[in-house]
Amino acid sequence: MRAVSKRKAMSLSSELHHLRHLLRRENRLRLTLSVSLFFVILLLVTPRLPHSPSLHLFADMRTLLAGVPNTLNVLTTYPLLLFGVPGLVLCLFGGWFGISLRGEAVAWAFYFAGNAVSGFGSAYYHLKPDDDRIVWDRLPMMISSFSLLSLLLIERVNERLGLSCLFSFLTLALVSIACERVFDDLRLCMLLHLMPCIAIPTMVYLLPPKYTFSRFWFLATGFYLLARFEGLADRKVYSANGYFISGHSLEHLCLSMVSFILTLMLSFRSIRIARDS
C-alpha cells in the first residue's frame, strides 16, 4: 500500500516538475504561441454566431416586486456588489488581505471591481434585456474571470507573466465586445467565456500553491463551474425546482459565493512555509 502511494506521489511530482519546466522563461513563448494557435484555429472553424433575440429570453421573466421587470434576475445581481465593493476597498486601502506582491494587488483590484460593476451592469441589463445593454453584463463578468485566471499565474508561476496575461486578456475582452457590436459575431466573446472555465480548474489542480488556505480555491472553483452550468441550463434548473428560481438567477448567486469565498481566503491566508504533502 505504501509502495502504491509512493508511486502516485512520485508520478504527481513528475507531472508538476514537467509543468514547471514548460512554464520556464525559455518555454513560455512556445507555450503561449501553441495555446494562441489552438484558439485561433477553434475560432476559425466555428461558424459565425450572430445576435439572436432568444439570447435575451430568460426562463424567469416575472415581475414580482414593485413593478420591477425580471425581478429575481435583477435582485440576484446585488450580492456581487455587496462583496465586490468591500473587497476592492480592502484590497486597495487596507492591510487586511494576505497579498505579498503588487501585481497580486492589481489583479485582485480588477477582480473585485469587475464584481462591483457587475452588480450595477447586470441589473441594468436585466431591467430591459437587449443587444445595447448586454455589454454592461458581459464585460464586467469577463474582467472578473480573466482577473482570476491571471491571479493564479501571478501567485503560482510568475508575477510579470501574470500581469502581461491580465492586460492581454482585458484587451481581448474589449476586442470581443467590438466584434460583437461591429460585426454581429459572438464567436470571440463565447470563446473568451469558455477559456477561464477550462484554465482556472486546471491551474488550481496542477500548480502548487504559494499561500495557506489554498483549498478555498477548490471551493471557489466549484462554485464558479456550477454558476456556468446553471447559466447554460437556465430553463431546466427553473423547471427542476418547481419554477421557484431560474438557473440564471442561481448563476448570479453562485458567482457571489465565489467572491465571498475568495474574500475569506484573502483574510485568513499567509505565505506557505511547508507545502502540503
Account of the 3D structure:
This protein is an all-alpha fold. Helices cover 73% and strands 0% of the residues. It has eleven helices and no strands. It has helices at residues 2-22, 25-45, 71-75, 78-93, 102-127, 135-156, 159-182, 187-206, 215-232, 234-240, 247-268. Helix 4 packs antiparallel against helix 5 (102-127), helix 4 packs parallel to helix 11 (247-268) and helix 6 (135-156) packs antiparallel against helix 7 (159-182). It is globular and about 50 Å long.
**Got a strand count?**
0
> What pattern of helices and strands is seen along the backbone?
HHHHHHHHHHH
Radius of gyration: 20 Å
**What oligomeric state do these chains adopt?**
single chain
Mind sketching the topology for me?
Elements: H1 2-22, H2 25-45, H3 71-75, H4 78-93, H5 102-127, H6 135-156, H7 159-182, H8 187-206, H9 215-232, H10 234-240, H11 247-268
